Amino acid sequence: MACTYIMVPSAHADENRWGFGTGLGFTSGTVNNTVFTMGFNLDYYFDRNFSAGPMLQISPMGDLFQIAFAGVGRYHFRFNNHVNLVPFTGIGFLHADLDKGTGPTRIDRNDTSWFIPIGVSLEYQVIPNMALNSTLQVNLHDINLSPSLTESDNSSVTLLFGFNWGP
After folding, report:
1. Which residues of the chain, if any, have pLDDT below 70?
2. pLDDT at 1
3. The pLDDT value given to residue 150
4. Whole-prediction pTM
5. What is the rounded CA–CA span in Å between residue 158 and residue 86?
6. What is the pLDDT of residue 10?
7. What's the confidence (pLDDT) of residue 53?
């Protein structure tokens, strides 16, 4: 009597597809000149080279409080020398609150606008799931704090340095 064996693949938990990033730096070209900025992102990796997820940037110090939130798509170009080049873009919202000065010249205005971040990150893979990164990002938006400020704020540039953890 002959026996037939059927190979059934064992059930494994799906590999980790989530990544997290954080960075510190500054944003230049705001209604309050250059400000300190903190950035955070959460990414779901559809495959090794493409991820998407929320991005949050906060500028909490000085006269300007600014918060930006966007859904972002990233493509990861991975090179053999542990260097990754990651262009990204997204769409979301930006809120700016400027509280500057005292007395009759005091400015206390805020505005919320659409927000389009376009940028690139350069990463150095320290270990397989952690990278040091630097990010340069152009921010497109339409912040209008009139009548206190006559000019509108249509763009800014953000530079961040930080870490990314991923699968």
Report:
1. 1-14, 148-150
2. 55
3. 65
4. 0.83
5. 15
6. 43
7. 97
Helix/strand/coil (H/E/C) assignment for every residue in the chain: CCCCCCCCCCCCCCCCCEEEEEEEEEEEEECCEEEEEEEEEEEEECCCCEEEEEEEEEECCCCEEEEEEEEEEEECEECCCCEEEEEEEEEEEEEEEEEECCHHHCEEEEEEEEEEEEEEEEEEEEECCEEEEEEEEEEEEEECCCCCCCCCEEEEEEEEEEEEECC
Q: What's the pLDDT score for residue 166?
A: 86
List the structure tokens of 61: 């110090």
Phi, psi of 98 (to 5 degrees): -105, 120
